[in-house]
Amino acid sequence: MKPTSETRPVIVVGGGWAGIAAATELARHDIPVILLESAKQSGGRARSVNVDELHVDNGQHMLLGAYESTLDLLRKIGVNENDVLQRKPLSLQWYRPGKKPVSLNTPNLPAPFHLAWALLTLKGLSLRNRLSALRFARQLEKTGFTIDNDCSVADFLAQHRQSPALIHALWEPLCIGALNTHLHEASAQIFLRTLGDSFSHARSDSDLLLTRVNLGSVLPKPAMDYIETHKGSVRLGQRVSTLCIENGSITGVTIDNTSIAASEVILATPHTTARRLLSPHGLLQETCQQMARLQDRPICTVYLQFDKTVRLGRWLHGSLGTVSQWIFDRGLYGQQGLMAVVISGDGEHLQWDNQKLCAQVAAEVAAQYPQWPTPRSQQVIREKRATFASTVNVNQYRPNAETAVQGLWLAGDYTNTLLPATLEGAVRSGRYSAQQIINAHQRQRRQQQEKT
Ligand SMILES: Cc1cc2nc3c(=O)[nH]c(=O)nc-3n(C[C@H](O)[C@H](O)[C@H](O)COP(=O)(O)OP(=O)(O)OC[C@H]3O[C@@H](n4cnc5c(N)ncnc54)[C@H](O)[C@@H]3O)c2cc1C
After folding, report:
1. How many Å lie between the centroid of ligand 1 and the Cα of residue 387?
2. What's the pTM value of the predicted model, to 2 decimals?
3. What is the pLDDT of residues 218-239, one digit of tens each?
Protein backbone atom coordinates (compact mmCIF):
# COMPACT_ATOMS: atom_id res chain seq x y z
CA MET A 1 0.00 0.00 0.00
CA LYS A 2 1.34 3.45 -0.89
CA PRO A 3 2.05 5.40 2.32
CA THR A 4 -0.13 8.49 2.73
CA SER A 5 0.74 11.66 4.60
CA GLU A 6 -1.40 10.16 7.38
CA THR A 7 0.85 7.13 7.86
CA ARG A 8 4.31 8.54 7.16
CA PRO A 9 5.92 10.35 10.08
CA VAL A 10 6.31 14.10 9.75
CA ILE A 11 9.97 15.12 9.89
CA VAL A 12 11.00 18.09 11.97
CA VAL A 13 14.55 19.29 11.22
CA GLY A 14 16.15 21.12 14.16
CA GLY A 15 15.68 20.56 17.87
CA GLY A 16 15.71 24.16 19.11
CA TRP A 17 12.62 25.49 20.87
CA ALA A 18 10.80 25.95 17.53
CA GLY A 19 11.42 22.37 16.38
CA ILE A 20 10.67 20.96 19.82
CA ALA A 21 7.41 22.90 19.96
CA ALA A 22 6.42 21.68 16.49
CA ALA A 23 7.24 18.02 17.23
CA THR A 24 5.49 18.13 20.61
CA GLU A 25 2.35 19.63 19.10
CA LEU A 26 2.26 16.90 16.42
CA ALA A 27 2.81 14.18 19.01
CA ARG A 28 0.05 15.67 21.13
CA HIS A 29 -2.31 15.17 18.19
CA ASP A 30 -1.25 11.55 17.63
CA ILE A 31 0.69 12.35 14.48
CA PRO A 32 3.87 10.25 14.17
CA VAL A 33 6.91 12.53 14.12
CA ILE A 34 10.69 12.23 13.81
CA LEU A 35 12.74 15.10 15.22
CA LEU A 36 16.22 15.31 13.68
CA GLU A 37 18.79 17.44 15.51
CA SER A 38 22.37 17.82 14.33
CA ALA A 39 23.85 18.46 17.78
CA LYS A 40 24.32 15.88 20.52
CA GLN A 41 21.68 17.66 22.58
CA SER A 42 18.46 19.52 21.92
CA GLY A 43 17.62 23.11 22.86
CA GLY A 44 19.54 24.96 20.12
CA ARG A 45 20.51 28.45 21.21
CA ALA A 46 18.57 27.99 24.44
CA ARG A 47 20.43 24.93 25.71
CA SER A 48 22.38 24.05 28.80
CA VAL A 49 26.17 23.89 28.46
CA ASN A 50 29.11 22.68 30.50
CA VAL A 51 32.08 25.06 30.41
CA ASP A 52 34.92 23.56 32.43
CA GLU A 53 33.24 22.93 35.77
CA LEU A 54 30.39 25.35 35.20
CA HIS A 55 26.98 23.91 34.37
CA VAL A 56 25.18 26.93 32.91
CA ASP A 57 23.00 28.02 30.01
CA ASN A 58 24.25 29.08 26.62
CA GLY A 59 23.70 32.65 27.76
CA GLN A 60 21.36 33.83 30.47
CA HIS A 61 17.71 33.70 29.38
CA MET A 62 14.63 35.37 30.80
CA LEU A 63 10.96 34.86 29.91
CA LEU A 64 7.99 37.20 30.31
CA GLY A 65 4.45 36.63 31.50
CA ALA A 66 3.41 37.46 27.92
CA TYR A 67 5.06 34.24 26.65
CA GLU A 68 1.58 32.70 26.33
CA SER A 69 2.38 30.02 23.81
CA THR A 70 5.47 28.80 25.69
CA LEU A 71 3.62 28.65 29.01
CA ASP A 72 0.68 26.91 27.34
CA LEU A 73 2.97 24.32 25.75
CA LEU A 74 4.56 23.58 29.13
CA ARG A 75 1.10 23.06 30.64
CA LYS A 76 0.00 20.82 27.77
CA ILE A 77 2.91 18.45 28.27
CA GLY A 78 2.37 18.32 32.01
CA VAL A 79 5.17 20.65 33.18
CA ASN A 80 4.11 22.70 36.18
CA GLU A 81 5.24 26.30 35.64
CA ASN A 82 6.13 26.66 39.31
CA ASP A 83 8.48 23.69 39.17
CA VAL A 84 10.65 25.17 36.42
CA LEU A 85 10.06 28.93 36.50
CA GLN A 86 9.85 31.59 39.15
CA ARG A 87 7.78 34.63 38.48
CA LYS A 88 7.57 38.12 39.92
CA PRO A 89 6.04 41.46 38.93
CA LEU A 90 8.22 43.66 36.74
CA SER A 91 10.74 45.58 38.79
CA LEU A 92 13.96 46.88 37.22
CA GLN A 93 16.85 48.87 38.64
CA TRP A 94 19.79 50.36 36.76
CA TYR A 95 23.09 51.53 38.15
CA ARG A 96 24.52 54.73 36.60
CA PRO A 97 28.16 55.60 37.27
CA GLY A 98 28.27 58.86 39.26
CA LYS A 99 24.49 59.36 39.21
CA LYS A 100 21.43 58.22 41.14
CA PRO A 101 20.18 54.77 40.11
CA VAL A 102 17.05 54.49 37.99
CA SER A 103 14.25 52.15 39.04
CA LEU A 104 10.94 51.12 37.53
CA ASN A 105 8.44 49.24 39.68
CA THR A 106 4.98 48.07 38.63
CA PRO A 107 2.33 48.29 41.37
CA ASN A 108 -0.53 45.86 41.95
CA LEU A 109 -2.94 47.56 39.53
CA PRO A 110 -4.62 46.21 36.39
CA ALA A 111 -2.99 46.90 32.98
CA PRO A 112 -2.37 49.49 31.66
CA PHE A 113 -2.61 51.43 34.95
CA HIS A 114 0.33 49.50 36.37
CA LEU A 115 2.48 50.87 33.54
CA ALA A 116 1.16 54.40 34.00
CA TRP A 117 1.96 54.32 37.70
CA ALA A 118 5.37 52.74 37.11
CA LEU A 119 6.30 55.53 34.67
CA LEU A 120 4.95 58.27 36.88
CA THR A 121 6.98 57.03 39.84
CA LEU A 122 10.16 56.17 37.93
CA LYS A 123 13.02 56.84 40.35
CA GLY A 124 16.10 58.71 39.16
CA LEU A 125 14.35 60.83 36.49
CA SER A 126 12.85 64.32 36.68
CA LEU A 127 9.08 64.88 36.89
CA ARG A 128 9.20 66.37 33.40
CA ASN A 129 10.75 63.19 31.98
CA ARG A 130 8.30 61.00 33.86
CA LEU A 131 5.33 62.93 32.50
CA SER A 132 6.80 62.78 29.04
CA ALA A 133 7.16 58.96 29.31
CA LEU A 134 3.57 58.73 30.53
CA ARG A 135 2.24 60.83 27.64
CA PHE A 136 4.19 58.64 25.23
CA ALA A 137 2.74 55.44 26.76
CA ARG A 138 -0.80 56.82 26.55
CA GLN A 139 -0.24 57.71 22.91
CA LEU A 140 0.93 54.14 22.23
CA GLU A 141 -2.18 52.75 23.93
CA LYS A 142 -4.39 54.92 21.74
CA THR A 143 -2.77 53.57 18.59
CA GLY A 144 -2.79 49.98 19.85
CA PHE A 145 1.04 49.90 20.02
CA THR A 146 1.22 49.86 16.21
CA ILE A 147 2.54 52.13 13.47
CA ASP A 148 1.91 51.84 9.76
CA ASN A 149 5.33 52.77 8.44
CA ASP A 150 8.30 51.33 10.23
CA CYS A 151 11.19 53.57 11.32
CA SER A 152 14.03 53.27 13.80
CA VAL A 153 13.21 53.30 17.51
CA ALA A 154 15.55 56.31 17.82
CA ASP A 155 13.54 58.28 15.22
CA PHE A 156 10.25 57.22 16.74
CA LEU A 157 11.31 58.36 20.21
CA ALA A 158 12.54 61.67 18.79
CA GLN A 159 9.17 62.17 17.04
CA HIS A 160 7.52 61.69 20.44
CA ARG A 161 9.88 64.15 22.11
CA GLN A 162 11.49 61.72 24.48
CA SER A 163 14.51 63.47 25.98
CA PRO A 164 18.05 62.08 25.70
CA ALA A 165 18.05 61.44 29.48
CA LEU A 166 14.81 59.45 29.26
CA ILE A 167 16.00 57.50 26.25
CA HIS A 168 19.32 56.67 27.89
CA ALA A 169 17.78 55.63 31.21
CA LEU A 170 14.69 53.78 30.03
CA TRP A 171 13.96 53.19 26.35
CA GLU A 172 17.48 52.29 25.28
CA PRO A 173 18.01 49.47 27.80
CA LEU A 174 14.49 48.14 27.16
CA CYS A 175 15.07 48.17 23.41
CA ILE A 176 18.46 46.45 23.44
CA GLY A 177 17.22 43.97 26.04
CA ALA A 178 14.12 43.03 24.05
CA LEU A 179 15.38 43.28 20.45
CA ASN A 180 19.14 42.72 20.83
CA THR A 181 19.43 45.58 18.35
CA HIS A 182 20.57 49.14 19.06
CA LEU A 183 18.06 52.03 18.98
CA HIS A 184 19.36 53.71 15.84
CA GLU A 185 18.66 50.63 13.69
CA ALA A 186 15.97 48.82 15.72
CA SER A 187 12.49 48.44 14.24
CA ALA A 188 9.91 50.63 15.99
CA GLN A 189 7.18 48.22 14.84
CA ILE A 190 8.78 45.28 16.62
CA PHE A 191 9.62 47.34 19.71
CA LEU A 192 6.04 48.60 20.01
CA ARG A 193 4.70 45.09 19.52
CA THR A 194 6.86 43.91 22.43
CA LEU A 195 5.71 46.79 24.65
CA GLY A 196 2.07 46.17 23.68
CA ASP A 197 2.29 42.43 24.43
CA SER A 198 3.83 43.15 27.83
CA PHE A 199 1.76 46.11 28.97
CA SER A 200 -1.59 46.38 27.25
CA HIS A 201 -3.50 43.21 28.21
CA ALA A 202 -3.11 41.61 31.64
CA ARG A 203 -0.88 42.90 34.40
CA SER A 204 0.80 39.49 34.66
CA ASP A 205 2.02 39.82 31.03
CA SER A 206 4.84 42.07 32.20
CA ASP A 207 5.95 39.61 34.92
CA LEU A 208 9.55 38.50 34.79
CA LEU A 209 10.11 34.76 34.69
CA LEU A 210 13.46 33.25 35.49
CA THR A 211 14.17 29.56 35.29
CA ARG A 212 14.57 27.56 38.51
CA VAL A 213 16.47 24.84 36.67
CA ASN A 214 18.79 24.92 33.68
CA LEU A 215 17.15 25.73 30.33
CA GLY A 216 17.41 22.15 29.09
CA SER A 217 15.15 20.99 31.92
CA VAL A 218 12.50 23.67 31.30
CA LEU A 219 11.30 22.55 27.86
CA PRO A 220 13.78 20.43 25.84
CA LYS A 221 14.07 17.47 28.23
CA PRO A 222 10.37 17.12 29.23
CA ALA A 223 9.32 17.71 25.61
CA MET A 224 11.67 15.01 24.28
CA ASP A 225 10.30 12.57 26.87
CA TYR A 226 6.78 13.55 25.82
CA ILE A 227 7.50 13.07 22.10
CA GLU A 228 9.10 9.67 22.68
CA THR A 229 6.11 8.43 24.65
CA HIS A 230 3.60 9.74 22.05
CA LYS A 231 4.44 7.99 18.75
CA GLY A 232 7.47 10.17 18.18
CA SER A 233 11.20 9.71 17.90
CA VAL A 234 13.99 12.16 18.71
CA ARG A 235 17.26 11.51 16.91
CA LEU A 236 20.25 13.53 18.05
CA GLY A 237 23.50 13.91 16.10
CA GLN A 238 21.58 13.78 12.77
CA ARG A 239 22.55 16.61 10.41
CA VAL A 240 20.18 16.95 7.48
CA SER A 241 22.18 17.72 4.35
CA THR A 242 19.46 17.95 1.68
CA LEU A 243 15.78 18.42 1.25
CA CYS A 244 14.31 16.09 -1.37
CA ILE A 245 11.75 17.83 -3.54
CA GLU A 246 10.01 16.32 -6.56
CA ASN A 247 7.37 17.94 -8.76
CA GLY A 248 6.85 20.76 -6.31
CA SER A 249 6.31 18.51 -3.27
CA ILE A 250 8.63 17.49 -0.45
CA THR A 251 9.50 13.79 -0.54
CA GLY A 252 11.97 13.57 2.33
CA VAL A 253 15.41 14.57 3.60
CA THR A 254 18.85 13.06 3.44
CA ILE A 255 21.44 12.55 6.15
CA ASP A 256 24.88 11.34 4.98
CA ASN A 257 23.49 9.87 1.73
CA THR A 258 20.70 8.09 3.58
CA SER A 259 17.20 9.22 2.68
CA ILE A 260 14.24 9.38 4.98
CA ALA A 261 10.94 9.65 3.13
CA ALA A 262 8.32 12.14 4.28
CA SER A 263 5.38 13.97 2.77
CA GLU A 264 5.60 16.72 5.39
CA VAL A 265 8.74 18.41 6.72
CA ILE A 266 9.05 21.30 9.14
CA LEU A 267 12.42 22.99 8.70
CA ALA A 268 13.23 24.51 12.09
CA THR A 269 16.92 25.34 11.76
CA PRO A 270 18.45 28.84 12.11
CA HIS A 271 17.82 31.00 9.02
CA THR A 272 21.36 30.61 7.66
CA THR A 273 21.07 26.81 7.55
CA ALA A 274 17.51 26.97 6.28
CA ARG A 275 18.61 29.17 3.40
CA ARG A 276 21.44 26.77 2.52
CA LEU A 277 19.00 23.83 2.45
CA LEU A 278 16.39 25.74 0.44
CA SER A 279 18.74 27.35 -2.08
CA PRO A 280 19.24 24.43 -4.55
CA HIS A 281 15.50 24.39 -5.26
CA GLY A 282 14.13 26.68 -7.96
CA LEU A 283 10.71 27.08 -6.36
CA LEU A 284 12.28 28.48 -3.21
CA GLN A 285 14.51 31.14 -4.80
CA GLU A 286 12.26 34.00 -3.83
CA THR A 287 12.21 32.88 -0.19
CA CYS A 288 16.01 32.55 -0.24
CA GLN A 289 16.44 36.07 -1.65
CA GLN A 290 14.17 37.39 1.05
CA MET A 291 16.06 35.54 3.78
CA ALA A 292 19.43 36.73 2.47
CA ARG A 293 18.52 40.16 3.86
CA LEU A 294 18.34 38.87 7.45
CA GLN A 295 21.31 39.78 9.62
CA ASP A 296 22.37 38.51 13.04
CA ARG A 297 23.42 40.19 16.27
CA PRO A 298 25.58 38.75 19.05
CA ILE A 299 25.14 38.30 22.81
CA CYS A 300 28.09 37.83 25.16
CA THR A 301 27.66 36.35 28.61
CA VAL A 302 30.48 36.71 31.13
CA TYR A 303 30.18 34.36 34.10
CA LEU A 304 32.03 35.62 37.17
CA GLN A 305 32.43 33.23 40.11
CA PHE A 306 32.77 35.08 43.42
CA ASP A 307 33.01 33.70 46.90
CA LYS A 308 29.82 31.70 47.66
CA THR A 309 28.67 34.28 50.21
CA VAL A 310 28.33 37.03 47.54
CA ARG A 311 24.71 37.94 46.75
CA LEU A 312 23.23 40.45 44.30
CA GLY A 313 20.23 41.00 46.57
CA ARG A 314 17.82 40.85 43.62
CA TRP A 315 17.30 38.65 40.56
CA LEU A 316 18.95 41.01 38.17
CA HIS A 317 20.44 44.47 38.11
CA GLY A 318 20.93 46.69 35.06
CA SER A 319 23.80 49.04 34.38
CA LEU A 320 23.77 52.13 32.14
CA GLY A 321 26.68 53.70 30.28
CA THR A 322 28.87 50.64 30.82
CA VAL A 323 29.84 47.67 28.67
CA SER A 324 27.99 45.36 31.09
CA GLN A 325 24.21 45.66 30.69
CA TRP A 326 22.66 43.20 33.15
CA ILE A 327 23.93 41.14 36.07
CA PHE A 328 21.93 38.02 37.01
CA ASP A 329 22.52 36.20 40.29
CA ARG A 330 22.84 32.48 39.53
CA GLY A 331 22.36 31.85 43.26
CA LEU A 332 18.73 31.48 42.13
CA TYR A 333 19.82 28.21 40.50
CA GLY A 334 21.75 27.09 43.54
CA GLN A 335 25.03 28.39 42.04
CA GLN A 336 25.99 30.59 44.96
CA GLY A 337 28.30 33.50 44.18
CA LEU A 338 28.03 33.01 40.39
CA MET A 339 27.01 36.14 38.45
CA ALA A 340 26.04 36.11 34.76
CA VAL A 341 26.83 39.45 33.14
CA VAL A 342 24.99 39.95 29.84
CA ILE A 343 26.07 42.20 26.95
CA SER A 344 23.56 42.29 24.10
CA GLY A 345 24.14 43.58 20.58
CA ASP A 346 27.12 45.01 18.76
CA GLY A 347 29.86 46.99 20.47
CA GLU A 348 33.58 47.52 20.72
CA HIS A 349 33.78 44.67 23.26
CA LEU A 350 33.47 42.25 20.32
CA GLN A 351 37.00 43.23 19.27
CA TRP A 352 38.45 42.39 22.70
CA ASP A 353 39.88 39.05 23.75
CA ASN A 354 38.28 37.23 26.70
CA GLN A 355 40.91 38.46 29.14
CA LYS A 356 40.27 42.10 28.32
CA LEU A 357 36.49 41.61 28.31
CA CYS A 358 36.53 39.89 31.72
CA ALA A 359 38.81 42.60 33.18
CA GLN A 360 36.49 45.37 31.95
CA VAL A 361 33.35 43.63 33.22
CA ALA A 362 34.96 42.78 36.59
CA ALA A 363 36.05 46.43 37.00
CA GLU A 364 32.51 47.65 36.25
CA VAL A 365 31.02 45.17 38.72
CA ALA A 366 33.59 46.24 41.35
CA ALA A 367 32.57 49.89 40.85
CA GLN A 368 28.95 48.94 41.57
CA TYR A 369 29.69 46.55 44.41
CA PRO A 370 32.92 47.76 46.02
CA GLN A 371 32.34 45.45 49.02
CA TRP A 372 32.59 42.30 46.85
CA PRO A 373 35.90 40.41 46.67
CA THR A 374 37.58 39.89 43.29
CA PRO A 375 36.09 37.02 41.28
CA ARG A 376 37.80 33.65 41.70
CA SER A 377 37.26 32.57 38.11
CA GLN A 378 35.56 33.72 34.93
CA GLN A 379 34.16 32.27 31.72
CA VAL A 380 32.91 33.92 28.54
CA ILE A 381 30.27 32.56 26.16
CA ARG A 382 30.10 34.48 22.90
CA GLU A 383 27.15 33.71 20.68
CA LYS A 384 27.86 35.58 17.43
CA ARG A 385 24.51 34.69 15.93
CA ALA A 386 22.41 34.95 19.05
CA THR A 387 19.39 36.49 17.33
CA PHE A 388 18.40 37.95 13.99
CA ALA A 389 18.70 41.74 13.95
CA SER A 390 15.30 43.37 14.52
CA THR A 391 16.13 46.19 12.13
CA VAL A 392 13.75 48.64 10.43
CA ASN A 393 11.42 46.85 7.96
CA VAL A 394 12.85 43.42 8.80
CA ASN A 395 9.32 42.01 9.04
CA GLN A 396 9.13 42.40 5.26
CA TYR A 397 11.99 39.91 4.81
CA ARG A 398 10.95 37.34 7.39
CA PRO A 399 9.47 34.38 5.52
CA ASN A 400 6.05 32.93 6.29
CA ALA A 401 5.71 29.38 7.54
CA GLU A 402 4.10 28.30 4.26
CA THR A 403 6.53 27.68 1.40
CA ALA A 404 6.09 27.27 -2.34
CA VAL A 405 6.78 23.55 -1.91
CA GLN A 406 3.84 21.33 -0.99
CA GLY A 407 4.36 19.78 2.47
CA LEU A 408 7.37 21.95 3.42
CA TRP A 409 6.98 24.39 6.30
CA LEU A 410 9.39 26.77 7.97
CA ALA A 411 9.66 27.39 11.71
CA GLY A 412 12.10 29.36 13.84
CA ASP A 413 12.32 32.67 15.67
CA TYR A 414 13.23 34.40 12.37
CA THR A 415 9.96 33.51 10.60
CA ASN A 416 7.25 36.11 10.35
CA THR A 417 5.80 36.02 13.86
CA LEU A 418 6.13 39.83 14.16
CA LEU A 419 7.97 39.21 17.46
CA PRO A 420 11.68 39.78 18.05
CA ALA A 421 13.95 36.72 18.26
CA THR A 422 12.70 35.10 21.44
CA LEU A 423 11.80 31.75 22.90
CA GLU A 424 8.16 32.76 22.52
CA GLY A 425 8.64 33.59 18.83
CA ALA A 426 10.34 30.22 18.29
CA VAL A 427 7.63 28.28 20.11
CA ARG A 428 4.80 30.13 18.36
CA SER A 429 6.31 29.51 14.95
CA GLY A 430 6.81 25.80 15.64
CA ARG A 431 3.29 25.36 16.93
CA TYR A 432 1.88 27.30 13.96
CA SER A 433 3.54 25.05 11.37
CA ALA A 434 2.50 21.94 13.28
CA GLN A 435 -1.07 23.23 13.44
CA GLN A 436 -1.22 23.56 9.65
CA ILE A 437 -0.23 19.90 9.31
CA ILE A 438 -2.68 18.84 12.03
CA ASN A 439 -5.48 20.69 10.19
CA ALA A 440 -4.58 18.94 6.92
CA HIS A 441 -4.59 15.53 8.63
CA GLN A 442 -7.94 16.24 10.22
CA ARG A 443 -9.36 17.23 6.81
CA GLN A 444 -7.93 14.05 5.27
CA ARG A 445 -9.48 11.92 8.03
CA ARG A 446 -12.87 13.57 7.58
CA GLN A 447 -12.75 12.97 3.82
CA GLN A 448 -11.86 9.30 4.36
CA GLN A 449 -14.71 8.90 6.86
CA GLU A 450 -17.14 10.47 4.39
CA LYS A 451 -16.04 7.99 1.71
CA THR A 452 -16.56 4.91 3.91
C1 LIG B 1 22.87 34.26 24.60
C2 LIG B 1 21.42 34.30 24.25
C3 LIG B 1 20.53 34.90 25.11
C4 LIG B 1 19.17 34.96 24.79
N5 LIG B 1 18.30 35.48 25.68
C6 LIG B 1 16.96 35.34 25.48
C7 LIG B 1 16.04 35.69 26.49
O8 LIG B 1 16.40 36.12 27.59
N9 LIG B 1 14.71 35.52 26.23
C10 LIG B 1 14.26 35.01 25.04
O11 LIG B 1 13.05 34.87 24.88
N12 LIG B 1 15.12 34.69 24.05
C13 LIG B 1 16.45 34.83 24.25
N14 LIG B 1 17.35 34.45 23.27
C15 LIG B 1 16.82 34.02 21.95
C16 LIG B 1 16.36 32.55 21.94
O17 LIG B 1 17.33 31.72 22.50
C18 LIG B 1 16.12 32.15 20.49
O19 LIG B 1 15.21 33.04 19.90
C20 LIG B 1 15.54 30.74 20.37
O21 LIG B 1 16.26 29.82 21.15
C22 LIG B 1 15.56 30.33 18.90
O23 LIG B 1 15.04 29.02 18.78
P24 LIG B 1 14.92 28.34 17.34
O25 LIG B 1 14.38 26.98 17.58
O26 LIG B 1 14.21 29.24 16.43
O27 LIG B 1 16.41 28.24 16.77
P28 LIG B 1 17.68 27.44 17.33
O29 LIG B 1 17.68 27.47 18.82
O30 LIG B 1 18.87 28.01 16.65
O31 LIG B 1 17.43 25.93 16.89
C32 LIG B 1 17.78 25.43 15.63
C33 LIG B 1 18.26 23.99 15.80
O34 LIG B 1 18.52 23.43 14.52
C35 LIG B 1 19.66 22.60 14.61
N36 LIG B 1 20.20 22.41 13.26
C37 LIG B 1 20.89 23.29 12.51
N38 LIG B 1 21.20 22.76 11.31
C39 LIG B 1 20.67 21.52 11.30
C40 LIG B 1 20.66 20.47 10.33
N41 LIG B 1 21.24 20.61 9.11
N42 LIG B 1 20.05 19.29 10.64
C43 LIG B 1 19.45 19.12 11.86
N44 LIG B 1 19.45 20.09 12.82
C45 LIG B 1 20.04 21.27 12.54
C46 LIG B 1 20.57 23.37 15.55
O47 LIG B 1 21.56 22.56 16.11
C48 LIG B 1 19.57 23.90 16.59
O49 LIG B 1 19.40 23.00 17.65
C50 LIG B 1 18.70 34.41 23.56
C51 LIG B 1 19.62 33.83 22.67
C52 LIG B 1 20.95 33.75 23.02
C53 LIG B 1 21.90 33.07 22.09
Report:
1. 8
2. 0.96
3. 999 999 999 999 989 999 999 9
